[in-house]
Design a protein that fits this description.
heterotrimer, A mainly alpha (63), B alpha+beta (417), C alpha/beta (317), A: 63 residues, 0% strand, B: alpha+beta, 13 strands
C-alpha cells in the first residue's frame, strides 16, 4: 500500500494520470470480479488514449 | 558553488564565517586545478610546440616530452593537489556534494589542514615557476610577443569581473565591476541586480545567447567605444580590477600591466592573466589554510525562513557565473536562469575569430593547417565550455572557416568538424 | 605488439568525464606508453575529418561520454561505433542519460520558450529561435537538430561495455585501462569499473533499525557523520545504487545521489527505490503513511536524478 502511494506520487510527477493506475485485491476465487475489473480498466485507459505528450506530437507535428 | 551561494539567498540564511572560508579555500583549489589544466594542456601546446606543429604532438603529451618529464610531473602533481583538496572536502573533485544553504556538509580536520597547507606552499612555488616559464617561453621570444600584441588578436570591448571592496580580484565573493574600453568604471552591481545590467540577445544560428550591457542596448558585433559587448574570464577580470589581493600576484599583475597596458585588449594576453590569477589562487589557498578559523566545527547555519528566490554570483575560471533560482515553499526549484562563464564571451569569441581570420589570411596566401590553428588560438584563449554555456549540453563546438577570394568565390574550407 | 588506439568523445556532457580521465594524473604518461590517443577533442587536436579517414575498426577502444541530445551527438556516436572495435558508454550520461536526462521532465518547446523568451535576462521581442538552417550572405549556416528527448548512447548504437559514475573515479578508470591493455576483455554488455554490490553493502556508517517517521532534506538537519543517512530520514539512494565510487558523497556527509545506477538485474532504479523506501516508513495507519511519504517532496526528481532516459518510462509523459 505504501509502495502504491509513493509510486502514484512519482507517476504523477512523470505525467502519468491517476486514472491509468489502479490497485485492486482480487483472490483466485474471484474470477468474475477479475474479468470485470480488467474490462473496466481497459475501457478507461482506451478512453484516455495515448499520453498527452504523444498526442501533442501526433497533432502538432513537433516530432 | 554559485548554486550554493544562490541557495543561501533563496533560504535567507547567512553561512557561518568558517563555512565561507572553507568554500573559498575549496574554490581556490578549484581555480588551481582548472587554470593549470588550461594553461598546460590547452594553451602551452601552441607556444611550447609552436602554432603550426603537427596535431599529433601539439598537445599535453608533446609538451611533457619537450619540457621534460620532471616538469611534466610537477604540472600533474599540482593540478592533482587542486583536485585532492576539493575531494577532501566534497567527497569528489568533480560535482561534489558539499555546499548546503547556510554552509557546507563537512569541515576540515587539523590533519587535513596540515596536508592542505603543505600542498598550498608547494602550489605557491609552482605558481611562481609558471610565471617564470611564461617569461622564458613567450616574453623572451620576440616572435611570440609580436603575436600577442599584434592587431590580429586585438579586440576592444568592455570588461567584467568580480572584485572585493578594494577593487581587487576575488573569485568567490564581492560585487561585479564593469569597466569600459578605456578601463574606466561603468558600474558595480550586487548579484540580485544582475538583470538591470546584463541582457542576452538571441541569434537564429546559435543555441548560445549573446550577453551584452543592457543599458547600452544590443549594438551588434561591434568593438570600440560605445559597444555593448563585454569580455569576462581572466582578461575581463584583470581589466576590471585595480590589482591583486596577495603580494606575489600583485607583483605579477604590475609586470603584466607594464607590458600589455591597462586595460589590455590583446586576446592572447589572457594566458598570462590566467597565470597571474593562478598565482593569486595559490597564495589565497595558503592564507586560508593557515587561517585559525578554518578547522572550526561551526560550518552550518540551519535555515528557518521559507525559501523563495535568490541569485548567486562568483567567478568561474571561464568568466562571471550567475545562478538565479525561484523555488516553491519546499525549496524545489521551479524556475532557473543561468549566465555561465563562457556565455559572457560568446560575442567576443566570434569577433576574435573573425578578426584573427581576416588579419592572418591574405590574398594569394597558401592556406595551411598551421594557419587554421592560429585562427583557433583566438578561440582557445577563452577556454570555452560550450556545453555549460548553451545549457543544452551540446558537446563540442565545430569550427569551420570558409575562405573566399575577392570575387566571393569559395577558395578553401578549413574545418575542425 | 603495436600500440593500442584510444579515442574519447563528449556528446551531451559537462567535461567532468574528461577531467576524470586527467585525474589518473601521472599515469597518463603510462597510458601514452601503451596507447596512441587518436581522437580526444578536449586534449588532442584531431578533427572529425581525421576520424572519417580512419579504417573501420581502426580504433581499439572508444570511451564515449555524454548523452545524446542532438543530431550531431548521434552522428558522431555512429561514426565512432563504425571506427571502433570496442565502444564503452563512459559515465552516467552515456549509460543512462545522467543530469542532462532531467530535461526529459520537460518538452522541447517548453525548454526553448524558457531559454530563448521567458528567462529574465533574455531580450528577444521578435521571438527569434535557433534554426537548423539559416541563410546568411556567405551561405547557409547549420545547427544540429535538438531532439525531442535526451537518449542514452545504447539507444543509438551498439554498446560493448558500460562504465557508470558522475564522473567515474580515476582509480576505476585506471583499472579499466589496464584490463583493456591486457586484452582480457569481459563479456559483452558488462558493467565495468564498478561492483555488483550496492552502496549500502560497502558503506561503513552504523546501521541499526531502518524505520523512518519523518523524512528530511539535507539542509533541514545537522547530519550525524557516523550514522546511516537513511535512518536519519534522508533519502539516500545507497540501497539501490551500484557501488564502486568509494562512497564519495556519503563520506562528504551527504546522501548518495544514485549516479552509478542500479545493480545487475534491476531494470528501473527509481521503482526499486520506491519499494525500498516504502518498506521503512514507520506508520501505524495509511493516513500516517501518507503523511510521512508526502515529506518526500520531489520523489521523481530524486529517484531518477541520473537515469530518467534509461528508466522504464524514459521521460515525463
Amino acid at each position: 500500500m505504501r509502495r502504491y502511494q509513493l509510486m502514484k506520487k512519482v507517476l504523477e510527477q512523470l505525467g502519468v494520470e491517476d486514472q491509468r493506475v489502479r490497485l485492486e485485491w482480487i483472490s483466485s476465487a474471484e474470477g468474475t470480479k477479475f474479468a470485470k475489473v480488467i474490462e473496466e480498466f481497459t475501457e478507461q485507459v482506451r478512453q484516455l488514449g495515448p499520453f498527452k505528450q504523444d498526442q501533442k506530437t501526433a497533432a502538432g507535428g513537433e516530432g | 558553488m554559485a548554486s550554493g551561494k544562490a541557495m543561501d539567498v533563496v533560504f535567507g540564511v547567512e553561512p557561518t564565517s568558517a563555512a565561507k572560508k572553507l568554500r573559498e579555500l575549496f574554490y581556490s583549489a578549484h581555480m588551481i586545478h582548472s587554470h593549470i589544466a588550461h594553461f598546460y594542456a590547452l594553451a602551452a601546446p601552441d607556444f611550447v610546440m609552436g602554432p603550426d606543429a603537427d596535431p599529433a604532438v601539439r598537445n599535453i603529451l608533446g609538451v611533457i616530452g619537450k619540457v621534460g618529464l620532471e616538469i611534466g610531473g610537477e604540472v600533474i602533481k599540482h593540478r592533482a593537489y587542486g583536485q585532492q583538496i576539493q575531494a577532501m572536502l566534497g567527497g569528489k573533485a568533480t560535482h561534489p556534494a558539499w555546499t548546503l544553504p547556510g554552509g557546507v556538509s563537512k569541515g576540515l580536520t587539523e590533519d587535513e589542514r596540515k596536508q592542505v597547507e603543505e600542498m598550498a606552499k608547494s602550489c605557491v612555488e609552482f605558481g611562481k615557476f609558471s610565471l617564470q616559464l611564461f617569461d622564458d617561453v613567450v616574453l623572451k621570444n620576440q616572435a611570440y610577443v609580436d603575436l600577442v600584441v599584434g592587431d590580429a588578436y586585438k579586440l576592444v570591448t568592455n570588461y567584467m569581473g568580480l572584485v572585493d571592496e578594494n577593487n581587487k580580484i576575488n573569485f568567490y565573493d564581492g560585487k561585479v565591476r564593469v569597466v569600459d574600453t578605456e578601463g574606466k568604471e561603468l558600474f558595480k552591481y550586487s548579484p540580485r541586480e544582475y538583470v538591470d545590467y546584463v541582457a542576452e540577445h538571441v541569434e537564429p544560428y546559435s543555441y548560445l545567447k549573446y550577453p551584452y550591457l543592457r543599458q547600452r542596448g544590443w549594438t551588434g558585433f561591434t568593438e570600440g567605444a560605445g559597444t555593448a559587448i563585454y569580455q569576462a574570464a581572466p582578461l575581463g577580470r584583470i581589466n576590471a580590477c585595480d590589482g591583486m589581493a596577495t603580494p606575489v600576484a600583485q607583483e605579477a599583475y604590475e609586470k603584466f600591466v607594464s607590458v600589455v597596458g591597462h586595460p589590455t585588449h590583446f586576446v592572447l594576453a589572457t594566458h598570462w592573466a590566467r597565470l597571474v590569477e593562478l598565482m593569486y589562487a595559490c597564495e589565497r589557498l595558503l592564507e586560508l589554510a593557515v587561517d585559525e578559523e578554518i578547522t572550526s566545527p561551526d560550518i552550518r547555519t540551519i535555515p528557518t525562513a521559507t525559501p523563495k528566490e535568490g541569485v548567486g554570483i562568483l567567478e568561474a575560471p571561464r568568466g562571471t557565473l550567475t545562478h538565479h533560482y525561484a523555488t516553491d515553499s519546499n525549496g524545489i526549484v521551479v524556475k532557473a536562469n543561468l549566465i555561465v562563464g563562457t556565455t559572457n564571451n560568446n560575442a567576443p569569441i566570434s569577433m576574435a575569430i573573425k578578426k584573427a581570420a581576416t588579419s592572418l589570411i591574405k590574398p594569394g596566401m597558401e592556406i595551411t593547417n598551421g594557419l587554421l590553428n592560429m585562427v583557433e588560438m583566438a578561440f582557445r584563449a577563452y577556454d570555452p565550455c560550450f556545453s555549460c554555456a548553451t545549457h543544452a549540453i551540446l558537446g563540442e563546438l565545430p569550427l569551420k572557416i570558409n575562405v573566399y577570394d575577392s570575387r566571393g568565390e569559395l577558395v578553401r574550407t578549413l574545418s575542425r568538424e | 605488439m603495436s600500440k593500442l588506439k584510444l579515442a574519447s568523445y563528449w556528446a551531451a556532457a559537462c567535461g567532468g568525464c574528461d577531467v576524470a580521465i586527467l585525474d589518473i594524473n601521472e599515469k597518463i604518461v603510462d597510458v601514452a606508453n601503451v596507447a596512441d590517443i587518436v581522437f580526444w577533442p578536449i586534449a588532442v587536436d584531431f578533427k572529425y575529418s581525421d576520424v572519417e579517414a580512419y579504417a573501420d575498426g581502426y580504433i581499439d577502444v572508444c570511451l564515449f561520454h555524454g548523452a545524446i541530445r542532438n543530431s550531431e551527438g548521434e552522428h558522431i556516436a555512429k561514426l565512432l561505433r563504425q571506427k571502433s572495435k570496442v565502444m564503452v558508454a563512459f559515465g552516467s550520461c552515456a549509460v543512462a542519460g545522467g543530469i542532462p536526462g532531467l530535461a526529459n521532465f520537460k518538452r522541447r518547446e517548453d525548454i526553448f520558450e524558457r531559454v530563448y523568451i521567458e528567462s529574465n535576462s533574455t531580450q528577444n521581442p521578435e521571438r527569434v529561435f535557433p534554426q537548423t538552417k539559416f541563410a546568411v550572405p556567405e551561405g547557409e549556416l547549420e545547427l544540429p537538430e535538438f531532439y525531442k528527448d535526451v537518449k542514452c548512447l545504447a539507444d543509438v548504437v551498439d554498446v560493448d561495455y558500460f562504465m557508470p559514475g558522475c564522473p567515474p573515479t580515476a582509480d576505476q578508470i585506471w583499472a579499466v585501462v589496464q584490463v583493456i591493455a591486457s586484452g582480457a576483455l569481459p563479456p559483452k554488455g558488462a558493467f565495468v569499473g564498478c561492483s555488483n554490490k550496492t552502496m549500502c553493502d560497502e558503506c561503513k556508517r552504523v546501521k541499526t533499525e531502518k524505520k523512518v517517521k519523518k523524512f528530511y532534506r539535507p539542509y533541514e538537519i545537522m547530519i550525524d557523520s557516523e550514522k546511516c543517512l537513511l535512518e536519519q530520514g534522508l533519502t539516500c539512494m545507497g540501497p539501490v545504487t551500484r557501488a564502486g565510487c568509494g562512497n564519495q558523497c556519503t563520506s562528504a556527509n551527504l546522501p548518495c545521489r544514485g549516479c552509478y545506477g542500479p545493480v545487475d538485474g534491476v531494470i528501473d532504479q527509481g521503482a526499486k527505490y520506491i519499494s525500498a523506501l516504502a518498506s521503512i516508513v514507520d506508520a501505524d495507519t495509511p493516513e500516517e503513511a501518507d503523511r510521512i511519504i508526502s515529506q518526500i517532496v520531489d520523489p521523481a526528481g530524486t529517484f531518477y536524478r541520473y537515469g530518467l532516459p534509461g528508466s522504464l518510462l524514459r521521460r515525463a509523459k
